[in-house]
Specification:
Oligomer: heterotetramer
Structural class of chain A: mainly alpha
Order of helices and strands of chain D: HHH
Low-confidence stretches of chain D: none
Structural class of chain D: mainly alpha
Number of strands of chain D: 0
Largest interface: C-D, 41 and 46 residues
Distance between the termini of chain D: 35 Å
Largest sheet of chain A: none
Number of strands of chain A: 0
Largest sheet of chain D: none
Helix content of chain D: 40-55%
Mean pLDDT of chain D: 80
Radius of gyration of chain A: 15 Å
Strand content of chain A: under 5%
Low-confidence stretches of chain A: none
Helix content of chain A: over 70%
Chains: A mainly alpha, B mainly alpha, C mainly alpha, D mainly alpha
Radius of gyration of chain D: 24 Å
Number of helices of chain D: 3
Mean pLDDT of chain A: 86
Number of domains of chain A: 1
Number of helices of chain A: 3
């Protein structure tokens, strides 16, 4: 029962933050939403008895890819105005 | 054991080697080439002559004949199609022909020393290369074991004649004559090519004679006509839905097209007189042994095929007889010595065709040989006269050359007597046999009798124009200063003349059919010669086929009366010429013929009507075809291409270059795939 | 109580579609990259879910490769985006259209 | 200074419909599918260790979870990553610059 509840909760989080990634105005916010989505996917992995994968997901995605994207966001900021 | 058969391939390859030597050495190191290529050519053709003689002895001595494939250049699907290959067929006929070709070619090479080298011609390596290639082509053609190989060398012979007739290409006449020779013979060869394809399609083989278990196409024809049709032939005939007799006759006609073109028979004879523009030794080679003989030889080679087609045979005889008569009339009024000879060649090949059509196979081969000898002799003699006259060929400018060039005169006279068919020279025996065969078969067949009648009348004209030529050239008084003081000729001209002159007088001995009747001596050697050979390619078989398939029956008639008749007619013609043109300063009696002379001199306007055919009929047709091609065919193609261009220019706008659009299309495609898979899989 | 695999697959389909949506509607190259990450993760969820469904390790192991490939893709993608930005002073994907017809 | 995330206003929704259609199609297909009962991993299976064995094609008895061998893809991915590194460096470098 607790598993179903956890799944439902994190499914909502995943979907919501994914929508956030594509729908918000600011790229920086997008990147943060992406982080949230990736982390919630890691939770799903844990539910599916893939602990190692969850760890790798957090390390590689949240720790690596997201940092890269954050760098790219900052490097491509239009110096004068707001993003996008 | 090494025998003549092992060296047979060398017979054509020797002249080919001389061709290569003349071409390469002539191009890179002309100084090193002795006599401009004549010496290699003479050595090569001499070698060919020796080898051919050896081959002839081998063939006569044994019952073994050689018919082997030597090189397969296209392998067909096993069991479904056929191979295309080169092969050698060495039997009495081909070895006999090889000796003739090699002999004439050798003598022509020797003569060329006098005609070309001594006269200081330029471009000699080209000339001797052409002669070598010409000899090679003809020798290989003679040895060909299948009709496709024969066709290829047939064409090569035509190419060589083009090269050599147009040897003096800087003057206006020769190139156009060469073109004409090439195009007219090629016109006939189109039919021949279709015939070759038809033969391969029908019989699945092009072999002339059986090789091992494989039958040649004449034998397959015999089987088909006698009811035991081979499966492949039956299949094909079933496909096209024609009676075998009709279809084979059609094939025979198609191949005959090539023969008529090459052997200068009516109506494709017009190229040959023009070919006189070439050097005289070349004319000798073309007329005596190679180019023109190729056509007649082809009929002989596949005589087993023609012997079963009575209608085609009758046509051959008719064409031959008509050509003999027509060409002889035209020869009567010509002024140039070589023109007379050219028309006489056409006429004499007409006799050979007449003999073949009338079932006189031996007579035709016999006449081919004697004609090769005396016509080569006459051309070389004419060449000697032309040298002496410093290249003036008009007979009315000659006269009285008899005492100034006796060797030429006597040998030329020997050839003329042979040509006119005067006893006992070679031409008498062969022409008499031709006419005799035509008569005995013609007594049962009105068409052959008509052909015989034309051939017989042509005898008078032959005697007349021959002696008109001799008398105008050699007798009487010299009519120009050049004729007063002719140039001299050397041994290299006299040697071939003497050899050929002797032969022209004596070679009839190989086949004196009337003498056999008279004395009982068996001296019809040529008959015995062709009696042997590969089974089903022998004289006996041909007779059998002629009687059973073509329905030819010889009437029983002693040969003396016809012989006496033709001899009498020939003497009449010769005597007429003597009466009209004797004396120191003969008059041009043919002028009295008036408009007929004009008609004859213009060759019955054959050239004109052929030009009209080309310009008045073919040109408009070609223009219509051109319009059709340019307008409709190209129009369709252009429309299709512009349609493609137009639609392409519209459709390319799909390619916006924006990733988003591509992604949208991908997505929609994915949706469609999911839906399709789901619907097919019944997921919903 | 174990969650039905169906729901994981549905979740992954939703996530994938959101990624596609981002790809189709937005013009910022960086957001493209993020959308692609979303789609890859959706695929990973699928793999891991079916790994659990069949009790087989292949899915999980394979999703590791997906992770590695995603990392490589991001590295190259960001390189491209930086070049894009350098050349156009912008990261709008509709700008570089010079290669079309 | 932090800002609140705002929804973007200039979204071109029309192509987005394609994505919605895709989701609809997939959702219908998934919901109508039946995968059967979940087999799951054996109790006490060493999952992480199984991944390691699978990656290098190593054979071990239970309680390792069965899997296919992945040595070759592993090597291939190694090369891909190497190539990606090179590509990223090449792209990031300034044109013509050696720095």
């Amino acid at each position: 029962m607790i598993e179903s509840l956890t799944f439902a909760l994190f499914a909502v989080v995943t979907i919501a933050s994914s929508l956030g990634v594509v729908l918000v105005e600011d790229v920086w916010h997008s990147a943060l939403f992406l982080g949230a989505a990736l982390l919630s996917v890691a939770v799903h992995f844990l539910l599916l008895k893939a602990a190692f994968l969850a760890a790798v997901q957090i390390l590689v995605y949240v720790g690596g890819v997201l940092i890269l994207i954050a760098f790219a966001v900052m490097l491509t900021r239009d110096p004068g105005g707001v993003g996008e | 054991m090494v025998g003549a058969f092992d060296f047979a391939a060398a017979i054509p390859m020797l002249p080919f080697a001389s061709f290569v030597v003349a071409i390469l050495a002539g191009y890179f190191t002309p100084r090193l080439l002795p006599k401009g290529g004549a010496v290699p050519g003479i050595i090569a053709t001499g070698g060919s002559l020796l080898l051919s003689g050896w081959l002839m002895v081998t063939v006569s001595g044994t019952e073994h004949y050689y018919n082997q494939e030597i090189y397969t250049w296209t392998t067909g699907l096993a069991g479904e199609t056929f191979d295309l290959s080169f092969g050698l067929l060495l039997d009495p006929l081909s070895s006999y022909m090889l000796v003739i070709v090699a002999l004439i070619s050798f003598l022509v090479h020797v003569f060329s020393l006098g005609y070309m080298n001594d006269e200081g011609e330029t471009g000699l390596p080209r000339y001797y290369a052409g002669l070598g290639l010409f000899s090679f082509s003809m020798l290989a053609f003679v040895m060909a074991s299948n009709i496709l190989m024969a066709f290829m060398f047939f064409e090569l012979v035509g190419l060589c004649s083009w090269l050599l007739i147009g040897f003096w290409f800087r003057e206006p006449g020769p190139p156009s004559a060469a073109k004409k020779a090439f195009l007219v013979t090629r016109f006939g060869d189109y039919f021949f090519l279709i015939g070759v394809v038809a033969i391969f399609a029908t019989f699945g083989t092009g072999l002339f004679a059986p090789r091992g278990d494989e039958l040649g196409f004449p034998q397959l024809t015999a089987e088909a006509l006698s009811g035991e049709m081979a499966p492949v032939v039956a299949d094909f005939l079933g496909t096209i839905g024609l009676e075998p007799q009709t279809w084979f006759a059609l094939i025979g006609l198609l191949v005959l097209g090539g023969v008529i073109g090459k052997s200068a028979q009516f109506p494709l004879h017009t190229w040959l007189p023009d070919a006189m523009e070439g050097p005289t030794p070349v004319s000798a080679l073309i007329h005596a042994a190679t180019m023109v003989a190729a056509g007649v030889y082809l009929v002989m080679r596949m005589y087993g095929f023609y012997a079963q087609l009575p209608r085609i045979l009758a046509l051959i005889a008719l064409v031959g007889g008509f050509t003999a008569l027509m060409a002889a009339t035209m020869a009567m009024v010509k002024r140039e010595i070589k023109q007379v000879l050219a028309y006489s060649t056409i006429s004499q090949y007409g006799y050979m065709m007449l003999a073949l059509g009338a079932g006189g196979y031996v007579a035709a081969t016999f006449h081919l040989m004697t004609h090769a000898i005396f016509k080569a002799l006459l051309f070389l003699g004419a060449g000697a006269v032309i040298i002496a006259m410093h290249h003036n060929e008009n007979m009315w400018d000659m006269g009285g050359l008899k005492d100034k060039m006796p060797v030429t005169y006597w040998t030329f006279l020997s050839g003329s007597l042979a040509l006119a068919g005067i006893f006992p020279f070679a031409g008498f025996w062969s022409k008499d046999e031709v006419l005799y065969e035509a008569l005995i078969h013609g007594l049962n067949d009105p068409i052959l009798l008509l052909a015989y009648a034309m051939g017989l009348i042509a005898v008078v004209f032959t005697g007349f124009y021959t002696f008109r030529m001799v008398i105008l050239t050699f007798h009487g008084e010299a009519r120009t200063e050049t004729a007063e003081d002719p140039g001299s000729v050397r041994w290299n001209v006299k040697f071939p003349l003497v050899v050929l002159g002797t032969l022209a007088a004596t070679v009839g001995v190989v086949n004196m059919a009337p003498v056999k009747e008279l004395t009982g001596w068996d001296i019809t050697y040529l008959h015995h010669w062709f009696e042997s050979g590969i089974q089903t390619v022998t004289l006996g078989e041909y007779h059998h086929l002629l009687e059973s398939a073509a329905g030819y029956h010889a009437a029983d008639l002693a040969p003396f009366l016809p012989a006496a008749l033709s001899l009498g007619l020939a003497l009449t013609g010769a005597g007429l010429a003597w009466i009209l043109y004797r004396g120191p300063d003969p008059t041009a009696h043919t002028d009295k013929l008036g408009s007929i002379k004009t008609l004859l001199y213009n060759n019955y306007y054959q050239d004109e009507y052929q030009v009209w055919l080309a310009e008045g009929v073919t040109m408009p047709l070609a223009q219509v075809a051109d319009k059709f091609d340019q307008g409709i065919i190209d129009g369709v193609v252009n429309t299709i291409s512009s349609l493609a261009l137009f639609s392409g220019s519209r459709i390319r706008r799909l390619q916006t270059g924006r990733v988003t659009n591509y992604a949208a299309m991908l997505t929609l495609g994915l949706v469609v795939i999911v839906l399709v898979v789901a619907l097919i899989g019944g997921w919903f | 109580m174990v969650v039905e695999t169906q729901y994981y697959v549905l979740l992954s389909a939703a996530m994938f579609s959101i990624g596609v949506f981002g790809l189709l509607t937005r013009r910022n190259a960086l957001r493209f990259l993020m959308s692609v990450e979303l789609m890859l993760n959706a695929a990973n969820i699928n793999l891991v879910a079916f790994s659990a469904q069949w009790g087989n390790m292949t899915g999980q192991t394979f999703s590791l490769f997906v992770l590695a490939l995603a990392a490589a893709e991001v590295a190259v993608g960001i390189g491209i985006i930086l070049v894009l930005f350098r050349n156009f002073r912008d990261v709008d994907v509709t700008e570089p259209a010079t290669m079309r017809w | 200074m932090t800002t609140k995330p705002e929804l973007s206003k200039n979204i071109d929704v029309l192509p987005g419909l394609a994505a919605l259609a895709l989701f609809a199609a997939m959702a219908v297909a998934i919901l109508s599918a039946n995968f059967g009962p979940i087999q799951g991993f054996e109790a006490g299976a060493a999952i992480t260790r199984s991944i390691g064995y699978a990656l290098f094609n190593l054979e071990r008895a239970a309680p390792v979870v069965t899997s296919e061998g992945f040595l070759m893809p592993f090597l291939a991915v190694a090369f891909v990553l190497d190539a990606a590194l090179g590509a990223a460096v090449m792209l990031a470098r300034r044109e013509g610059g050696e720095e």
